[in-house]
Each structure stands twice: as C-alpha cells, then as structure tokens.
C-alpha cells in the first residue's frame, strides 16, 4: 500500500472515530461524498437540510395569486426561523460564511470542515448534510445572427410557428404580466429588452433595480478556470446591484420571452410583458445553493439589500434554461430533492415554473435526467426544428433517475436556430432546449394577459397549454408504443400553440377570489403569567395554536375547530420558565405568528 493510501485510510479511521463518540445516527446524515472529502483533510461547501418541512398544502385552496404567495411565504419563513435557530447560532459562533434559505429549510455553508459537520450532524433537527457542488452550464450551440432585417424577416420563425402574432392581433401581448429568468444574467440595457424591464420607466428614463433584480453570485466559481479567484475576472463582479450578463445565455433567453426593439427585431413571444431576473451562474457555472437562492427570491422579491421581501411583487412565470445533472456534479439525490422542494414551493405560491428539458437527446430514450427538468412539478420543454420535428439534441423520457418512468417533456417548442439578443447590443442564433423554454414562458404571459384572473392557477394554466398543443409522434420506442402514444416521451403533448391556448383560456369559467377577511389573533395578558389566552377571529376549519421557546422547541400545542365569531384558547404556562416565547396560529388557508414575554 502506498504512503498516500495509508494516509487516507488513517484519516478515514479518525473521521469515523470522531463520529463514533456522537449519537449513532450522526454519520448516517452525512453524504458519502462529504465523508470522503473530510477524510482526505479537505473542506467542502455543504447544504445543511432540516427535518421539519412547512405544510403549505392549504395554498391550493386559496384563490388569488398574491394571497397564495403571502400564505406560502409566511409558512416557510416561520418554519425556517424556528427549526434553524440552534444551527444558526453555532454557525455564527464558528464565524462560518452561510446563506440561509427558508424556501427549502436549509443552510448553505462555505468551506465547512469535519469538526463543524460533526457538530451540525448531532443536532436532531438536522436531517441531511449534502454537498453543494459547482456545476457548469451545458451551453447551446451558437452562431452570430445576420445583419439585416431583410435577411430574416421582421418576426422570428419560432414566434410565428407558435402563432403568437395571431394572439397579438387579438390585443393580448402579455400586458400586465411579469415574466422572470434565472440564468447567467441579463444585459438589461439591450435595446430589445430594456423597454420591458420592470425596473425601467420608459417615460421618465429612470431606473429602480429594487425588487426587479437579484444577484445570487457571491464568489468566483472554481470551475471558471482562474489561476487566482479574483472578482475582477468576472465582467459583472460579485453581488451586482445592476443587471449584468457575463455569458450571453441569459440575455438570449429573455429576448425570446419579451424582446422587441420597435425597429424590426421582433424576437419575443410576449412583448407587452415586463421582466425581472436573478443571476444564478458565474460565467456559466452555478451550484445548488445559487439556484435555490434565485427560486427563493422569485417567491418574494427583495430590495437590493436582500431585505423587505414582498410576495406581491413575485413574477407570474419563471424560465429556467439550466440544469444540474449527475454527470456535472449533482451526484447526491438529497440535493436533487432539495431543488424539487424549491419548485414545489414556488408552484404552490402561484408561479409557473418552466424548465428546459435538457440537451442529451443523442443518448436516446431516458435522457431526461437533470434536475429540475425531470421533476413531476416542473413544466419541462423539449426543442423542435422549424418543420416541427424533434431536434437531435432534445432530451427524451421516460424519467428513470427516480424510477418514476414518468413522461417527459411536457410539451415542445422551437429550439433550433433561434435568433435573439446577446451582449453588446447584438443578436445571435442559438440551438438548445434553453431556447425552447422561453417560448413557453412567453406563452404563459400571453394567456394571462387574456385572462388575468387565472394568475396563480398553475395546474390550470399548464393544462391549457398541454391540451391545446399540436400533437406529434415519433418512431423511436421510448416505452410509449413506438412513439405513438399521446402524450409520448419525445414530444410530450406536442408543440405549443399560443392561439389555441388563449382561445381555450378565454372559454374557461372565471376564477373568483372569495372575499374572506383576514384571521385576527389577540393575546392577553402580555407579559404572560400563568397562562396565555388567545382570541382568534375569522378562523375557518381546523385551528392549531402552538407556542415555542426561544430556541425553537415546541412548548405547547392545542387543537380545536373553528366556530362562528370568536374562538378563545388558553395555553397553560405555569411551569414554563420566564423569557421570550413565539406563537403560531394555523387555520385553513392562513397562518398568523407573533411573540410574547412570560414573567
């Protein structure tokens, strides 16, 4: 055995000896990838995942997008604040660089060592410690676009193919709707997309990037190839407070969603819509934590300081032309599940999550394997040629990575030779499912501009798009009757049709938000002596009152059923020590939180 092998074996033995002194479940929480790295004496970027998950199922019964978003946001934040309290305190004491996420109840920690992981693994509220690997973007093929309008026509072929101009003629261009993109960044001053940026006032020429832009890039990626990781090597730097694209990919996707410079470059599906954005990749290299950070920001955008989150400013649809494949570093299924939980939460808040299905079609059947494309909750999009046939690179189903064998993609859209905006005010042709997804995100905006009352009804919107797609079939048998099933694992439900989708949406019965008063909670006395008396008004369904200690531990829980008028609930606290306590009242479709002092 070599000296190096002996050293690694010795370190592994030491590593497991450390954990042998901890509760027996502690080592089982740590991914094998992390165990190997720590045994080699390395540090690692990690994700600390917490056991408790907020119950946001009631959001499905809430009408109105803003109401859904506020409910989901409140539930997620309250759960994370309580369950992460001890871990945050430990991380502060260790001086660790952390990023806490309420969206999935997890904390990203940079350059953690074995000792810190040992401490975190012993916390009963922690369920998994997983790697946070850097991931390169599978860039689409690209070519510079032709110089003159005469060489290409005023409206790009993909826009024509899905019948978007016919919808424009009806007066629906995406007006009043906000689309969003998570990508390499965006050259916001490009003349094709600047007029549509929500942070830009076309009349006054003024700009406000608060709630309209977020940069999730806080460090230089080790995959960028710099000999010295210097923020100056990135043209956008880090923590950019102005939208910026360090790659071209993001700017191209946004152009396909909303682009129109009013000078003949009609490159976007929904030129009447506004856009907001988040950068989740550093020169094309992201990681699960940057992807999650952007998802979280879209649920409740913040100001440029990351403060004052406002779910009412969330977009209607988010385009995701990226994926985190096993082959690129997302080797831990716990990480994939974390990304899935992010998609689930965003959908529950009323946001449509459009995802490019991947460019691994050359591998044949079962090539949809990168998160978030393979998730059931993602609206995944394959790519077609101008003659409506599938491109050779478009990934196919069925999904095998989770043994679900579900059909993917959901639908297909133009993705070959798509001309759109790139940096420096230019245009270029790109090939990839990254180009197909933005067509569908723009389509969502068209449908909602025709039927704004459908905002937040994610399942219904996806059903409309699927049911009006133009069916297509293939000869390759991907467990779908030789490609002849409908839907199938090559085209899904077919190539999207904007006109058909809007006409169907116009025929759908109205969705009305009920006029339900807010739940009101009062507590007396405050400070509390022997008991806290809760007065609850406007509650519906099952009611739960919970009281937690300052460290997040549950102290008391009382359940009851709602009654007309006011409910009164007494929480005995005679034996509870003095101090600050937090409370939560859960009812059907609502959650209210607060705190009190016990003398």
Keywords:
3 domains; Immunoglobulin-like; Rossmann fold; disordered N terminus; 599 residues; alpha/beta
Task: Give the secondary structure arrangement, pairings included.
Elements: H1 3-20, H2 32-39, E1 44-50, H3 65-83, H4 85-94, E2 98-101, E3 106-112, H5 114-121, E4 126-131, E5 135-136, E6 141-144, H6 157-161, H7 164-169, E7 178-183, E8 213-215, H8 249-258, E9 274-279, E10 285-286, H9 288-299, E11 317-320, H10 333-348, E12 352-356, E13 379-384, E14 411-414, E15 418-422, E16 426-431, H11 433-450, H12 458-467, H13 498-507, E17 520-524, E18 531-537, E19 542-548, E20 554-561, E21 566-572, E22 579-587, E23 590-598
Parallel strand pairs: 7-9, 7-11, 8-9, 11-12, 12-13, 13-14
Antiparallel strand pairs: 1-3, 1-4, 2-3, 5-10, 6-16, 15-16, 17-18, 18-21, 19-20, 19-22, 22-23
């Amino acid at each position: 055995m070599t000296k190096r092998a002996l050293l690694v074996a010795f370190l592994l033995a030491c590593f497991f000896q450390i954990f042998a002194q901890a509760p027996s479940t502690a080592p089982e929480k740590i991914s094998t990838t992390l165990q190997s790295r720590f045994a080699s004496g390395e540090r690692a970027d990690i994700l600390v995942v917490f056991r408790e998950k907020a119950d946001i199922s009631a959001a499905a019964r809430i009408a109105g997008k803003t109401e859904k978003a506020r409910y989901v946001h409140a539930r997620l934040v309250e759960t994370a604040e309580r369950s992460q309290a001890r871990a945050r305190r430990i991380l502060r004491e260790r001086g660790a660089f952390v990023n806490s996420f309420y969206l999935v109840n997890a904390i990203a920690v940079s350059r953690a060592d074995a000792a810190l992981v040992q401490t975190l693994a012993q916390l009963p509220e922690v369920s998994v410690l997983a790697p946070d690997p850097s991931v390169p973007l599978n860039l689409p093929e690209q070519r510079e676009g032709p110089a003159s309008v005469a060489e290409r026509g005023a409206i790009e072929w993909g826009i024509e193919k899905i019948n978007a101009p016919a919808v424009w003629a009806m007066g629906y261009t995406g007006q009043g709707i906000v689309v969003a993109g998570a990508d390499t960044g965006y050259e916001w001053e490009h003349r094709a997309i600047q007029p549509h940026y929500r942070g830009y006032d076309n009349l006054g020429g003024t700009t406000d990037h608060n709630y309209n832009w977020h940069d999730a890039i806080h460090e230089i990626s080790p995959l960028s190839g710099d000999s010295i990781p210097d923020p100056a090597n990135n043209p956008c730097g880090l923590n950019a407070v102005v939208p910026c694209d360090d790659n071209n990919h993001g700017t191209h996707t946004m152009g396909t969603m909303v682009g129109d410079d009013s000078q003949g470059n009609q490159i976007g599906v929904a030129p009447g819509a506004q856009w907001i954005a988040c950068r989740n990749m550093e020169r094309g290299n992201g990681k699960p934590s940057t992807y999650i950070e952007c998802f979280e920001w879209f649920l409740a955008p913040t100001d440029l300081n990351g403060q004052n989150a406002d779910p009412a400013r969330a977009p209607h649809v988010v385009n995701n032309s990226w994926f985190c494949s096993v082959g690129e570093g997302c080797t831990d299924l716990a990480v994939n599940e974390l990304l899935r939980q992010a998609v689930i939460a965003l959908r529950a808040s009323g946001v449509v999550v459009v995802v490019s299905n991947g460019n691994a079609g050359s591998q044949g059947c079962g090539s949809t394997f990168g998160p978030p494309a393979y998730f059931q909750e993602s609206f995944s999009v394959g790519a077609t040629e101008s003659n409506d046939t599938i491109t050779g690179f478009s990934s196919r189903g069925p999904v095998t990575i989770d043994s679900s064998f579900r059909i993917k993609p959901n639908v297909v859209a133009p993705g070959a030779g798509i001309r759109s905006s790139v940096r420096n005010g230019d245009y270029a042709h790109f090939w990839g499912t990254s180009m197909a997804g933005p067509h569908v995100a723009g389509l969502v905006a068209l449908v909602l501009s025709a039927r704004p009352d459908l905002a937040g009804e994610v399942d219904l919107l996806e059903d409309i798009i699927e049911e009006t797609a133009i069916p297509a079939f293939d000869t390759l048998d991907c467990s779908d009757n030789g490609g002849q099933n409908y839907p199938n694992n090559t085209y899904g439900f077919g190539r999207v049709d904007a006109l058909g989708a809007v006409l169907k949406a116009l025929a759908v019965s109205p969705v009305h938000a009920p006029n339900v008063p807010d739940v009101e909670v009062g507590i007396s006395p405050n400070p509390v002596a022997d008991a806290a008396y809760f007065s609850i008004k406007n509650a519906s369904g099952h009611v739960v009152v919970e009281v937690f200690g300052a460290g997040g531990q549950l102290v008391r829980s009382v359940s009851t059923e709602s009654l007309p008028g006011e409910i009164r609930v007494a929480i005995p606290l005679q034996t509870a020590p003095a101090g600050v306590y937090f409370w939560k009242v859960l009812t059907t479709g609502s959650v209210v939180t607060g705190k009190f002092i016990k003398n």
